[in-house]
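Session log. Operator J.P. requested a structure for one protein chain; no other inputs attached. Running the standard single-chain path with token output.
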Amino acid sequence: MPLRKPPPASPPLKTDSSTAPPPRISLTSWLAIGGIGPPPAMAGFIRMASERKAAHRIAQAYKAAREAAAAEFEEKWPATGKRPHRQELLRLYGPGGTERKRKDEVAGDKGTRR
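Structure written below.
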């Protein structure tokens, strides 16, 4: 009985970037950071992280602006436990700050509605 030749070795697989799936984060890393479901590709994870960082920066800027506005308000109106009187507000902001117009109101005829 003659010996059989072994089958030829299969050619090496080509790993083009267009055919290969993108690398994914390991499942343990994904679950450790609180991920739900299958882990995303590395590019998607980097995008999500940068979006979270941007949202955090916006929140920090908003918080700083809010604290600065609160400090400015406290400077004008020290904490006395009561609201400022209308006369004080009118003196500070003027009478134009309290005038409001309805959307359907035309300048000149304040009493009538259309």
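Operator note: Helices lie at 27-32, 42-76, 86-93.
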